[in-house]
Amino acid sequence: MKKRISRKKRLEALKKESDLALRDQIRRLLALPMDRRTNFLRKRISYRISCL
Length: 52
What we know:
The protein is mainly alpha-helical. The protein has helices at about 5-30, 35; strands at about 45, 50.
């Protein structure tokens, strides 16, 4: 028979898992080239030109 996991233990495990997921997301984004990381800052000027 399995023992029930307490609410506190479940919350600690969830916090640890979400922290690991956040760190993984940060690592993946930092591994991208600079132009892909700062793409949200770019503004289109014309058909083929963009600037910061």
